[in-house]
């Protein structure tokens, strides 16, 4: 029996863990254990996703909550170590690039437990991003590296990671998107928010470099002030961003935009329905760059770099940055383009990535 402790902690982890927990069922020799670190804990950031994605109840919840990077990472490590000692897993499997990923990865490797990383090899080459540090360090100590796009294989090769440890398996995020499409289609979010198909834009923001820095945030707001005059904007707001609107004094500028509607963070199904029918999506998220590529919706990424270049070379993503004029220009170009302008589906983004991962884990023993 191969005992695998699977880690999830923050919202983007849940979409990645869901298909894996399903895929393990096909392997009688795999015994999965699910650990939630509690990095995200609000109903709308966590429990809602478990229900909608039918993720089994976690076997353990470390309930670490929020804190500085050091405090959160250290707290996860301290609480995860006894679990490893008690359960003695063969593998710890981590996903993505959040603090829970590196914290549990470090604990596992230092106890001599083998580590598998799903979504390995992605690089923004921007070491000011906390996620880039988490990615680089997790990959450096992983025994098995599961890669979602060709750039990841190339990056790992350039970093000298042994080829036999790296597996190009595709994108587990897209497994969830495909699995949930019918359920998302049934969402009533458009009617609930009074929106027409193709008649609005979606904004999401949560990167510290965008929402913690008042000068950058102000440039983004100036772009939204222009864009909302063309089409309404729906803005499901991350708790970090919500807090900063108040702290940085930007609430009056948002209140003055009559065509911009701030809504609570949405569940997965509502968010997918909203995204699939948007005219454009403006975002600093990683996962949304991938989802819009599959949905064929233009994505304007409000960052200076991306760790997911295949969404640009093959998909619908445009790296726009944070300059007001550049955002507005890119928006106008996207609006002028013919809807459904052909995007290619990246290799192995076929809904079967988790099956490939489970098979490799089962074969490794
Ligand atoms: C984390 C990840 C980021 C990921 C994002 C997705 C790290 C370093 N960052 O960023 O890579 O893209 O999740 O959402 O791991 N908060 C709540 N309720 C919650 C969770 C958070 O109110 O359920 C608030 C707290 O005030 C907290 C803040 O949001 O201090 C930030 O949460 P945190 O987990 O530290 O980072 P995120 O910005 O969510």
Secondary-structure blueprint:
Elements: E1 2-8, H1 11-23, E2 30-36, H2 47-52, E3 60-61, H3 69-87, E4 91-95, H4 99-110, E5 114-120, H5 130-141, E6 144-147, H6 150-158, E7 166-168, H7 172-179, H8 181-185, H9 189-192, E8 201-204, H10 208-211, H11 214-227, E9 233-236, H12 239-247, H13 251-256, E10 260-263, H14 268-276, E11 280-283, H15 287-295, E12 299-301, H16 310-313, E13 317-319, H17 324-336, H18 353-364
Parallel strand pairs: 1-2, 1-4, 2-3, 4-5, 5-6, 6-7, 8-9, 8-11, 9-10, 11-12, 12-13
Keywords:
single chain, 365 residues, alpha/beta, Rossmann fold, 2 domains, 18 helices, globular, binds uridine-diphosphate-N-acetylglucosamine
Q: What does the model show?
A:
The mean pLDDT is about 95. Helix content is about 45%, strand content about 15%. It starts with a strand and ends with a helix. The chain is built from 18 helices and 13 strands. The chain is α/β, with parallel strands linked by helices. The protein has helices at about 10-25, 45-50, 70-85, 100-110, 130-140, 150-160, 170-180, 180-185, 190, 210, 215-225, 240-245, 250-255, 270-275, 285-295, 310-315, 325-335, 355-365; strands at about 1-10, 30-35, 60, 90-95, 115-120, 145, 165-170, 200-205, 235, 260-265, 280-285, 300, 315-320. The protein has a seven-stranded parallel sheet with strand order 3-2-1-4-5-6-7, with helices on both faces. A six-stranded parallel sheet has the order 10-9-8-11-12-13, with helices on both faces. It folds into two domains: about 1-170 and about 350-365, Glycogen Phosphorylase B (Rossmann fold), CATH 3.40.50; about 190-335, 3-Layer(aba) Sandwich (Rossmann fold), CATH 3.40.50.2000. Uridine-diphosphate-N-acetylglucosamine (UD1) binds near residues 40, 41, 131 and 243. Uridine-diphosphate-N-acetylglucosamine binds near residues 12, 41, 45, 130 and 238.
């Amino acid at each position: 029996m191969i005992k695998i402790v699977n880690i999830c902690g923050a919202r983007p982890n849940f979409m990645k863990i869901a298909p894996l927990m399903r895929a393990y069922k096909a392997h009688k020799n795999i015994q999965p254990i699910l650990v939630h670190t509690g990095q995200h804990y609000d109903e709308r950031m966590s429990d809602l996703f478990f229900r909608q994605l039918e993720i089994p109840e976690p076997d353990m919840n470390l309930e670490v909550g929020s804190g500085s990077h050091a405090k959160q990472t250290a707290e996860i490590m301290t609480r995860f170590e006894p679990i490893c000692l008690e359960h003695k897993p063969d593998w710890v499997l981590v996903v993505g690039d959040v603090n829970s990923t590196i914290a549990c990865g470090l604990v596992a490797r230092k106890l001599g437990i083998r580590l598998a990383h799903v979504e390995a090899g992605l690089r923004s080459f921007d070491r000011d991003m906390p996620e880039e540090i988490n990615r680089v360090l997790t990959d450096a100590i992983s025994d098995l590296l599961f890669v979602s796009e060709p750039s990841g294989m190339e990056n790992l090769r350039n970093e000298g990671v042994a080829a036999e440890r790296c597996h190009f398996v595709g994108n587990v995020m897209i497994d969830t998107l495909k699995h949930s499409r019918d359920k998302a289609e049934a969402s009533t979010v458009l009617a609930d928010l009074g929106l027409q198909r193709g008649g609005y834009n979606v904004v999401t923001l949560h990167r510290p470099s965008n929402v913690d820095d008042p000068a950058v945030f102000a440039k983004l707001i100036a772009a939204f002030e222009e864009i909302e005059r063309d089409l309404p904007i729906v803005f499901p707001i991350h708790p970090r961003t919500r807090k900063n609107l108040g702290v940085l004094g930007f609430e009056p500028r948002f209140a003055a935009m009559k065509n911009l509607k701030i809504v609570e963070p949405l569940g997965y199904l509502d968010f997918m329905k909203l995204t699939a029918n948007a005219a454009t999506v403006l975002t600093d998220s990683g996962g949304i760059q991938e989802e819009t590529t599959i949905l064929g919706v233009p994505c304007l990424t409000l960052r200076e770099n991306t760790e997911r270049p295949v969404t640009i070379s093959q998909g619908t993503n445009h790296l726009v940055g944070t300059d007001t004029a550049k955002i507005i220009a890119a928006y106008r170009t996207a609006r002028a383009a013919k809807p459904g302008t052909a995007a290619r589906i990246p290799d192995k983004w076929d809904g079967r990535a988790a099956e490939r991962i489970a098979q490799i884990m089962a074969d490794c023993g």
